[in-house]
Design brief:
It is a single chain. Helix content is about 25%, strand content about 20%. Strands 3-2-1-4-5 form a five-stranded mixed sheet, with no helix packed on it. The protein is globular, with a radius of gyration of 13 Å. The protein is of the alpha/beta class. The chain has helices spanning about 10-20, 45-50, 70, 100-105; strands at about 1-5, 30-35, 60-65, 80-85, 90-95. Strand 1 (about 1-5), helix 1 and strand 2 (about 30-35) form a beta-alpha-beta unit.
Length: about 110
């Protein structure tokens, strides 16, 4: 699961807190949190506020250098979540505001 987010986005913060509430469902699904490089200065405070560094689920946190995310993914509304299968094929994209229940079928 790749989550494209902004550390200054209230919806993104809410989603991370919601995902923490269902962390037990993530048995084999790996989570990667990616923000744009211009938001790099805000990541340490964001990670501290949400206790991400010591959390096994959210330890893969970083920024995108260049414009790879913008070129590959459609950032309509953040947070954007992309689920891939075990063969690295895109399965589902969620943009913007969606119910946590909608994500659960894609989490393993």
């Amino acid at each position: 699961m790749i989550m494209i987010f902004s550390p200054e986005c209230d919806h993104c913060e809410h989603l991370i807190d919601s995902l923490k509430s269902i962390e037990a469902l993530f048995k084999t699904t790996q989570v990667v949190l990616v923000a744009e490089e211009r938001n790099k200065q805000y990541l340490p405070e964001f990670a501290l506020k949400h206790k991400l560094i010591q959390d096994r689920l959210f330890k893969n946190l970083g920024t995108n250098r260049g414009e790879l995310i913008a070129a590959v993914y459609t950032q309509k509304v953040l947070p954007q979540i992309l689920f891939y299968d075990s063969h690295h094929k895109l399965v589902k994209i969620f943009d913007g505001n969606y119910a946590l229940e909608a994500l659960k079928p894609y989490i393993q």
